[in-house]
Structure formats: structure tokens, C-alpha cells
Amino acid sequence: MSDSQAKLARKSLDKILNPLRDERIVTPPRGWTKAIRESLGMTTRQLAARMNVAPSRVSAIEKAETTGAITMKTLRDTAAALDCQLVYAFVPTKPLDELLHDQAARKVRNELVHLNHTMRLENQAVTPDDLNGEERRLIGVYLTTLNRRLWDTE
To answer: What share of the chain is helix, strand, coil (3-state, %, to 5)?
Structure first.
């Protein structure tokens, strides 16, 4: 994917995800399956019949959902049997461009710490203003060219 395509993709995703970022959706303590089923007045036996499974399977599904051991397919099938739509998304805590900037800043600061340390040992220390200017420049370089090394660990 080119840099311009990646930027357009980030902008498009952010437009979709921004409304979700502010939502505070709290999962019911006993899971969505049980919460919806019970609020509809549906028994495990009735849900099992709608899913063409044994009633014990519904209990297993409800338990697996609360422990996080459920599959997406099972969630989709269960949602359909409850006349619900499964909504699945990763919602970044900040806009994607901001996440990229933060990562670039961390990466650059880490690189400059090592560089500045080496230069001080060689008695070639750089002024704080020069260091800040170089930090801004390198962050810009990382952000203008979608650098695959941005997410590498040191």
C-alpha cells in the first residue's frame, strides 16, 4: 500500500471509528447472550431449538462468552438465533494519525537518546534546541514515508 493510500485508509477508518471511540459499551457481567436471551424471556431450551443444538450447548456458549473462549462463528450463529446483529470492531483509543505520531515520537526519542549518548562520550554533545529540531525532523520523516520499521522493537 502506498503512503497516500495508507493515509486515505486511516482517514476513512477514523471517520467510521470516531463515533465509537466515545461510546462506553459495557459488556453485561454474564455476557451478551444470556443478557439478551433473558431480557427476551427466552429459555436456554428455546434458544437451543432456534440454534438446532442441545440445551447444554447454550449453557456452554454462555460460559465460553464470559471467559472469552468463544469463537466468532459461534457468536455470529448465536446472535442470528437471537435476531441480533454481531458487531465486531477494534476501536483505537486515539485517532490513527495520532497513534502513528506517538509511535514515531517514541521511536525517534529512543534513537536520539542513543545517538546523543554516543556523541557526548566523544565530546560532541548537541544542544537541546538542536536535539528538539532533529526530533521534529525525524518524526516528520517517519510520518511522511510509511516506514515499516516504525513498529519494530529495538
So the answer is: 70, 0, 30
